[in-house]
Structure formats: C-alpha cells, structure tokens
Amino acid sequence: MESKMKLKVKRLIDKMAAPAEDPIPLLTPYKMGKFNLSHRVVLAPLTRQRSYGNVPQPHAVLYYSQRASNGGLLIAEATGVSDTAQGYPRTPGIWTKHQVQAWKPVVDAVHAKGGIFFCQIWHVGRVSNSGYQPNGQAPISSTDKLVSQGNTNEGVEFTPPRPLRTDEIPHVVNDFRFAARNAIEAGFDGVEIHGAGGYLLEQFMKDKVNDRTDEYGGSLENRCRFALEVVEAVVDEIGAGRVGIRLSPFGEYYECQDSNPEQLGLYMVKALHKYGLLFCHMVEPRMETGGENFECTESLLPMRKAFNGTFITAGGYERDNGNDAIAENRADLVAYGRLFLANPDLPKRFALHAPLNNYNIETFCIPDPVLGYTDYPFLE
Ligand SMILES: Cc1cc2nc3c(=O)[nH]c(=O)nc-3n(C[C@H](O)[C@H](O)[C@H](O)COP(=O)(O)O)c2cc1C
User: Fold this and answer.
1) Residues lining ligand 1, judged by CB closer than 6 Å?
2) How far is the CA of 283 from the centre of ligand 1 (A)?
C-alpha cells in the first residue's frame, strides 16, 4: 500500500519536473491595451438572426457563454445602431433602453467565465429592404445605386436606397456614438465599429459605390471622412482603449468594391493612429463569401505593418494557418467565424489538437433558439 502511494507521489513529482510543452502560438497570452488575453483565438462577429423584434434573447446568454473562456476575446454579432440600421430579420439592436437591458445578462454570462466582450455596432445602409425601415422608407446610403444582385436573405429583395443629405450625416454619426455609450451601459468591454462587409461605412469608403459630390465623396480622404467621423465620435464617447474597427478593403460584398483596396486600407489604418484605436480587425482578401474560401495574392501585411495597435485577422483560418499567422507576426490575434460557431470550445480543441465539429450552413441564420445555435457538442 505504502509503495503504491510512493509510486504515485514519484509520478507526480516527475510530471511536475518535466518541461511543460510549449503552447501553440494561438494559445499564448497577449496584452491588448488594458485587457490581458490568455490566448489569441477570437470569436468573430457572427449574425445569427435569433434576436426576435431586434432584442437579444435569453438563448443568447447560453450561446455566448458557451464560447467564452477565461481571458478570451469575443466579438458579438453585428448590432444595429438605430431603427434604420437593419437589413435582415431578427438581428439585435442597441439603440433602445429595452435592448440595453436585454444585452446585460448576455454580457454578464460572458464576464462570469472571464471573457472579454466587445459589441459590433452596425448600420447596413443600402443592404436592406423598406420593410425593415421605419414607416417603410427607403434605406439610406451614400448613393441611390441599388445592389443589383441577390437579396438580403430569406428571399427579400433590396429596395433602392436614398443618398443621405450632407446635413443628415452628423445624425448617423451620433447614432454610432449613442450605440457605443449604450454598449458600455450594457456592460460590454468595448465596441467594434463595423466598417466592413459592404455595409454603410464601406458604401462611403469605396469608389465603386460612393458617387457623391459633397465633402463625403470623390477623393479617398473625402470617402473615408464619414467612417473616421464615426471613429472620432465613438472614441470621444467611450475612450480609444475600448474601440476597434473592422475593415474589409479587399472585399466585394454586396457589390461594394474599390479600385485601389490596398491604398484604401493603408489610408484607413494610418488615419486610425491619430485616434489611438485599440484594434484593427481586417478581413483577409481570400474571404469572399460565407460559404467558400478563395486564395489570392493580395495581403494584409502592409496594413499590419502600418498599424500600431492590435491587429486582428479573419477569414478562412484553421488551426495551422492561424498558428503561422501569429508565429510569423502577421497578426496579434486571429478571429474565427464558422469554426467557432460550430465548436463552442474551439480554443481547447486547438490546444488538444482535437477533431472539430462540422458547421451546418442551413442553420446559421434560422430563428430556432437551439438548433445549430447552442446544440453543437463540447469535447467530452
Ligand atoms: C453566419 C455568419 C454570420 C456573419 N455575421 C457577421 C457579422 O455580423 N459581422 C461581421 O463583421 N462579419 C460577419 N460574418 C463574417 C465572419 O465574421 C467572418 O469574417 C467570416 O465567417 C470568415 O471567417 P471564417 O472563415 O473563420 O468563418 C459572418 C459570417 C457568417 C458565416
């Protein structure tokens, strides 16, 4: 009996004395401003369309807490800044007190697990239908050009947009400001301004869409003015240490293209310096659609090098190329969308090199509060 015990103790001592295996690059700690991250596997913002009446629901408490880990960064799904910001059914908002109250238990649940939680604040612009707009009005944009192909989803057609008058722009900037304030009131650690995906901010930034003749159109500086005014307002409201932005200069979502995406990306990151933004989250050029990945020769490296804050990359990452991105210093953090959606314990699976659950596209954006949402299994 005694020798059995001795053997156990010896094994324990040997184990403790053995050199610990180095964690993979994705699982090394990182300090992002005042936030101490224990690993670099970020939950990318993912619209799930389960927020009935634009209000976060109790099932989101479970969904986000499942994906939270101690010291892990989560970015919440795109969240509308006003009643004109929606283009899809059942997406959450953060412009009313009721919505702020509804976010609180979701945020609390993430914090209870030690997670760091940012809210992605969003306006769809022309990616909408008048049925989602107050009084059935036309969606607002930089332009009156209609998205010519596809639909917002669930077969709803796009409605021709109305270009914002110059004097209306400060009101939209203010909507972002109030949304940021509300996010902090709801308990979020900060916000990510949605400047990607073909939505309102990009509709101003990109020259294939923006056809304005006022100070918000024409030159690169003019086209970026609106996005940077939003950045300035949000930073002024909640402090630069709580603000990031997501950009996809290379993307062509909803026909939102630019003739010189690298120049656009570089201009933006350099301008962001001025505000001391916490992070810049960029979508890789290869990510073209929600379903498939395409490789291409363009790279985010020039932007990574030009930005002095935390650089997050996203789009088509798996375990190995995510590790490479960190090891080669191409990014500080890697955001995972579809893999994290289907694997609530993704960082742990990466640590153990465990097999991953497959995602099911059919259930990405359905209203069901459980199916394809909170029922993806954890590792045993
Ligand atoms: C179902 C779904 C919803 C998404 N919703 C958002 C969103 O709300 N905001 C956003 O910026 N990107 C959104 N994206 C893009 C993802 O954040 C991510 O950039 C994309 O899925 C590529 O990363 P991945 O290859 O790791 O999935 C969404 C993607 C999917 C598949």
Assistant:
1) 44-47, 77-78, 120, 194, 196-197, 246, 283, 287, 290, 314-317, 336-339, 364-365
2) 9
Buried b (16+ CB within 10 A) or exposed e, 113-141: bebbbbbbbbbbbbbbbbebbeeeebbbb
pLDDT in tens, the chain (380 residues): 445 555 555 554 554 444 457 899 999 999 999 999 999 999 999 999 999 999 999 999 999 999 999 999 999 999 999 999 999 999 999 999 999 999 999 999 999 999 999 999 999 999 999 999 999 999 999 999 999 887 777 788 999 999 999 999 999 999 999 999 999 999 999 999 999 999 999 999 999 999 999 999 999 999 999 999 999 999 999 999 999 999 999 999 999 999 999 999 999 999 998 899 999 999 998 744 445 555 556 789 999 999 999 999 999 999 999 999 999 999 999 999 999 999 999 999 999 999 999 999 999 999 999 999 999 999 98
Which amino acid is present at 128?
Answer: S
For residue 344, give both structure tokens: 């609530």
What is the whole-number distance in angstroms between the Cα of residue 178 and the centre of ligand 1? 24
Q: Phi first, then psi: what are they for 323, rounded to 5°?
A: -60, -40
Structural element, H or E, at residue 243: strand 243-247
